[in-house]
Each structure stands twice: as structure tokens, then as C-alpha cells.
Amino acid sequence: MIKLYGFWRSLASCRVRIALRLKGVAFEEIPVDLMKGDQHADAYKAINPQAVVPSLVIDDDAPLFQSMAILEYLEETQRTPPLLPPDPRGRARVRGLAQIVVSDTHPLIVPRVRDFLTQDLGIDEAKRNRWIENWSMKGLQAVEAQLVKEIETARFCHGSAPTLADVCVVSQVFGAQLFGFDTSSVPAVMRIFGECMKIPAFEQSAPLKQPGAPAKVTH
To answer: Which residue of 36, 49, 148, 163 is 20 to 30 Å from 13, comparing CA positions?
Structure first.
């Protein structure tokens, strides 16, 4: 039994959700409502002391944590289909594209950062949303710059099949869409996003298609 502790609008949970479905791995998702503070409950902190999602529990073993580590674990234990290229340079490129999102972009816009900006620094909603848009779009624009200059870019970020780069980039596009950001400055990213959305594992993992997602998004 595989249990994914996640949240409908968590982009990190979305990445793991996509990878599990691409690999054909059955899982049960257990919601942890970040907006209500469920992540700070003692029961969940016993699973993930950092009080963040996702966490992945496999057969009651110790929980796996941090989305990129979980993605790498799935790649190492579920070989088909591969989400990393066979060559070292290709793997480095895919990981680099993924890390633009996972390391340099997404951490700046997560709920605990947004809450700190408003609750601790007294930044109003308009300025907070400007912060989120700035870092979200700069991350996607950095991906765009890599995609348009490198010959490895094809139907997907790297070649003719999805990789970990696509999983991560798509999650960040979902985030930009939730906030209503203009993505016209990243046409290569959006073209690849469109290709990914033709694949059920991506389409079914969209935040607004998850249980608990509201009819109208508030920030």
C-alpha cells in the first residue's frame, strides 16, 4: 500500500502525483489541508517533522519526504517508463531544468513564505501577489531560455518522452495558472505543457481536478 500525503493545490504534491501515475503505481492520497493548518497537527508532524507535503509512505516503512527525493526514488525503483535519459549529460540537463523549478522557484512562493510576507512583514495582498508573480515567472523564463537554445528540446523538455523536467515544469505552470499569471512570455514552456496535458497522468493530476479543490480559487 502506497500513501501519498498531499494537498490539492500543493505543486510539490502534484509532481509526485504525476510521477506515480506515469509509472503506473497505484496510490491512496491522504489530504493534508495546508490552508487549515493540518500540516502542523502532531499526527502529521510525526510523519513529516518539517510540516510540509508531500510525504510518501510505502508499506508502513519510514516516510519519504521532499518531492525531488521522492521522484528520484521512484525512478530508481520503478524503471518503466524511464524519466531520466540514459546518458549522464542528458540526465544532468533534465535535473538542471527540474532544479530551476524545485530549488530556485517554487520555494519562494509556498504557503509558509506567503504567510510570513503577510503576517510577519505586513505586506498587503497586492504586493504579496507581485512577489509571487515575479519569482514564478522568472523561474519559467529561465526554463524557457534553456529550452529555446538547446537542441535536446523536442516534443518535451528533453526528447520525445516526458522526463522529470516535464513533471517539474508542468507543476510550475499549474501554479502560474492558479494565480492567473500571463504565461505568453514562455511559449516553448507552454507548448510543452500542452503536449504533457495530452497524457492522462498529467491531465488527471491537475490541482483543480483533485478532491477538495474549490470551484473558485482564493489565495
So the answer is: 148
